[in-house]
Amino acid sequence: MDRIDAMAAFVAVADLQGFAPAARKLGLSPSNVTRLIAALEDRLGARLLQRTTRSVTLTDVGARYLERARRILADVEEAEISAQAERTQPSGRLVVSAPIGFGRLHVSPVMSAYLQRYPDVSGELRLSDRMVHLVEDGVDLAVRIGHLPDSSLVARSVGDMRRLVVASPDYLKRRGEPKNPAAVLSHDTIQFGTSDWVFAEDGREVRVPCTPRFITNSADAALLHAEQGGGLTRVLAYQAAGAVEAGRLKIVLTKFEQAALPIHIVYPTSRLLSAKVRTFVDMVIEVSDWKFGKR
């Protein structure tokens, strides 16, 4: 059994919901398609399709296998096209994952510009603060902020990100500006993220266990409460950029900030680097300034 032919037959049957239309698409006889699917199921030791006299439907195993089979077939097609040097322009579907806030403000404009430049590409931007599994979730590339765990992913550095402590000018006028990390303990704090705030002092890491007066899982809510005089909050630089620029918030404890977090674009090593992934990374570097680590 040729695995690629069997995968192609399975995907065709799943897409067209029948053996006869799949056979016509592939230029095979229905009996040949049936044998390919049966051999594939025997090899996997699992049933992929439920067959009745009227319909063909995917099993749970088949539904999961379908996404991976699609990706493998796409990789094979890309490899052949690349080897033959027949394609110079990106095409197909590009799926990008990014954190919600950063994606909305900074990745979405890049995606829009990219689709205008490459009309043969259709794009999907998935915004989520959870760490997606690129292959299982059908994602071509992801934008990630922070240090990456060891993995099989290729990572391309595209920027950096400060972690800031900010408060409103009115609050700082009333309560005074903290001069060192320990002084945070005497202030009202707004928790977004971890309860321990980490700083760098005299070359060592300093943890300050805050007891917040306000806790939220929303950066926007934390910043709004800070703007209204609610206290100090610790956020990523891009989240506070507008309020700081407008003077509604002021950055404090600058000299005690940890090193900026890296911003990466990651994609699987198992995939041939397609033209659409390569050109999207190139466009990020060309049109974006994701250097949020500047002081």
- How many domains make up the coordinates? 3
Rounded Rg: 26 Å
Low-confidence stretches: none
Number of helices: 9
Write the layout of secondary structure elements.
Blueprint: H1 3-16, H2 19-26, H3 30-44, E1 49-51, E2 56-58, H4 60-84, E3 92-98, H5 100-117, E4 121-127, E5 141-145, E6 153-161, E7 163-167, H6 169-175, E8 189-191, E9 196-201, E10 204-209, E11 214-215, H7 219-227, E12 232-236, H8 237-246, E13 250-252, E14 261-268, H9 275-287, E15 291-292
Parallel strand pairs: 3-4, 3-5, 6-15, 8-11, 8-12
Antiparallel strand pairs: 1-2, 5-14, 6-14, 7-12, 7-13, 9-10
Helix pairs in contact: 1-2, 1-3, 1-4, 2-3, 5-9
Q: How would you portray this structure in words?
A:
The chain is built from 9 helices and 15 strands. 40% of the residues lie in helices and 25% in strands. The chain has helices at residues 3-16, 19-26, 30-44, 60-84, 100-117, 169-175, 219-227, 237-246, 275-287, and strands at 49-51, 56-58, 92-98, 121-127, 141-145, 153-161, 163-167, 189-191, 196-201, 204-209, 214-215, 232-236, 250-252, 261-268, 291-292. The protein folds into 3 domains: 3-84, Orthogonal Bundle (Arc Repressor Mutant, subunit A), CATH 1.10.10.10; 92-160 and 261-292, D-Maltodextrin-Binding Protein, domain 2 (3-Layer(aba) Sandwich); 163-256, Periplasmic binding protein-like II (D-Maltodextrin-Binding Protein, domain 2). The protein is an alpha/beta fold and 295 residues long. The termini are far apart. The radius of gyration is 26 Å and the shape is elongated.
